[in-house]
Amino acid sequence: MAQTDEQRWQRRKAERPGEIIDAALELFVEKGFMATRLDEVAQRAGVSKGTLYLYFDSKEALFRAVVETLVVPEIERTEQLIDAYEGPAAELISQLVKQWWQTVGESRVCGLPKLIISESGNFPELARFYVEQVIDRVRRVIAKLIKRGIATGEFKSCDPVYIARLLLAPMVFAAIYQHSLLPYDSEPFEVAAYLDTHLDIFLHGLVAPVAESGAAET
Amino acid sequence: MAQTDEQRWQRRKAERPGEIIDAALELFVEKGFMATRLDEVAQRAGVSKGTLYLYFDSKEALFRAVVETLVVPEIERTEQLIDAYEGPAAELISQLVKQWWQTVGESRVCGLPKLIISESGNFPELARFYVEQVIDRVRRVIAKLIKRGIATGEFKSCDPVYIARLLLAPMVFAAIYQHSLLPYDSEPFEVAAYLDTHLDIFLHGLVAPVAESGAAET
DNA sequence: CTTAAATAACTGACTGGTCAGTCATTAAAA
DNA sequence: TTTTAATGACTGACCAGTCAGTTATTTAAG
Question: A83: which residues sit within 8 A by CB, 6+ positions away?
Fold first, then answer.
């Protein structure tokens, strides 16, 4: 009856891809890649399914776009942050961990690790891309920082790559847990407090033994 | 022509469920629940698809059976191990971590955490079951151990539950990583060495400050 | 010790529903 | 009027779950 003057849709060529990526990220993280229906992505992005195919070639291409769009800028920001700072390694690590949770931890991007890990078997190329562009880069820059700390005598001697893994593991685990089993866990889980504790234990465990008189007795 | 005396199949009522569960675990871990085809499970188990339905009501029921069959005995073994031992908490922790990797880490069960985490969104009841029957129990028994260590003055004062999480996080992460991104990672990853480093850092970070004159100053 | 009947483990072609991807059509914008 | 963003009904492939039929095994009669 009276719907002729109401616009049914608008042309928004510029905004569509970002909105679709946001909707897809949410659903991929929530339900996994396979279980996510493109109709639902379209609905959440406020378009029809056909529109998805104007901007992305396939469901898999959309998946790749989600990862590439959201991850690469994040990594670059992190690397810059590390290169900019100069001071005690322990302090920088502490700051990095906390900053990471503030910027990434509570945003939607935080669901990516779970998504990538879940789908790695079905998307080998994507897994390889993620390892190279994210994991490897982050691990390398952290390892460099650890090495610096060892060189200055701040940290005890150890393999910087394993140390980097051990610094990152509880962080990534927190991100994964938050987007998987935490909702079913009765125990409270304050990530900020958890990370503070992690830093406390980790950095104390890493410092060179206090060289008072006799160094270490192990 | 000459195939009449060759048996096409055998009756093996007792062995079937276990073989099907094994095949399903492998494929679920490798490809995820949704992407796993029951035809392929059947093929790998050496039966036809119809046979699956003689032993399991549905694909989901098979999933539950995989988890329940493989997880519960493992947990009980762990709890018994902890209750049996009496000595310095640090030593027990160290032994537990190493033993865990020897028994669980290299077996197929090790793929379960990835599987559960991946599918938690689609199977809330299963996620809840896993949290209650695995995560919570393990965390509780570790926290108890930590508390014991604090009471005896072996460890410094801190929240035992977060400490338990932090002990477990790198272990679980290793298990997950091994079944997801490790195959795409160029960096070598010796889990045994990684866990040794973890124990080294973690236990050093956790010990009470060497009470030389004034005891604790927190 | 046969051998035939009864039992139940097992099979695999089939079905009904689901969904990624297509495309002829519609309508907003230029 | 032309151009092109956007639509949504449609299709072809795929697969969980079914079931009528097949065959190994057991039982018991001859």
Answer: none
Which residues 37-56 in chain B have a CB closer than 7 A to strand D? 37-39, 49-50, 53
Q: Give A159's contacts in chain B (Cβ within 8 Å).
A: 193, 197
- Those nucleotides of strand D lying less than 7 Å from any protein Cβ are 5-9, 15-20, 23-25
User: Smallest Cβ distance to A181: which of B120, B161, B189?
Assistant: B120
Do residue A176 and residue B117 have CB atoms under 8 angstroms apart?
yes
Paired strand residues for B207: B155
Instruction: Residue B185: list chain A partners with CB under 8 A.
Output: 131, 135-136
- Backbone dihedral region for residue B56 (phi beyond 0: left; psi -120 to 50: alpha; all else: beta): beta
A136 and B205: CB-CB below 8 Å?
no
Tokens of A29: 């993280």
DSSP character string of B47-107: S-HHHHHHH-SSHHHHHHHHHHHHHHHHHHHHHHHHHH--S-HHHHHHHHHHHHIIIIITS
Cβ atoms of B207 and B156 within 8 Å: the answer is yes
Is residue B113 less than 8 Å (CB to CB) from chain A? Answer: no
Distance CA A150, CA A144 (A): 10
In this structure, what is the dihedral angle of CA atoms B77, B79, B83, B85, given to the nearest 10 degrees?
60
Which of B127, B125, B159, B117 is CA-nearest to residue B142?
B159
Distance of CA B202 to the CA centre of its chain: 21
pLDDT per residue as tens, chain B (218 positions): 333 457 889 999 999 999 999 999 999 999 999 999 999 999 999 999 999 999 999 999 999 999 999 888 888 888 888 888 888 999 999 999 999 999 888 898 999 999 999 999 999 999 999 999 999 999 999 999 999 999 999 999 999 999 999 999 999 999 999 999 999 999 999 999 999 999 999 999 999 886 544 444 44
Of B217, B97, B82, B87, the closest CA to residue B152 belongs to B87
Contact flag, residue A10 CB and nucleic strand D, below 7 A: yes
